Prior knowledge:
The chain is an alpha+beta fold. It has a domain at about 25-120: 2-Layer Sandwich (Beta-lactamase Inhibitory Protein, Chain:B, domain 1). It is flat, with a radius of gyration of 32 Å. About 30% of the residues lie in helices and about 20% in strands.
Amino acid sequence: MLRTRSILFFAFFVVLAACSSKPSFINEYKIDIQQGNVLNQDMVAQLKPGQTRDQVRFLLGTPMIADIFHQQRWDYVYSYRSGQTGKTESRKFAVFFDADGRLERVAGDVEVANVAELTTPVAKTRLVDLGSLSGEAADTPLAPREEPGYFRRFMNMLGF
């Protein structure tokens, strides 16, 4: 009887110790947490003094913080926490309006474009060469289409 108790007592403490620690090669998965407004340099570069609130909202999105006590200021806050490293990155950007509701100034971690960037036209199109057919290749007819296999006919019959 004493031997059985000591074995149960020993097994209890082994199980208790196993629950309190984990081996170093076992890592739980932690997700990346992204919160707030994602602002990049291209979005902020489109801001110009004198824009209306609607134009700013179109460019940057709805502000994270629109305080009723500071109605002339919108705050865009962004936070990113890496699940693997636990490192937190945060950015803050504030937009200030005048009494008429026009953009007056901005402040924060993202820089506003300078005058040269605003006046220089940007080419938004590009030419992609997909190749061209020679005269002989363009004149030859295409091969006839193959009949679908059994599996494809079955899937077509089911509507997939």
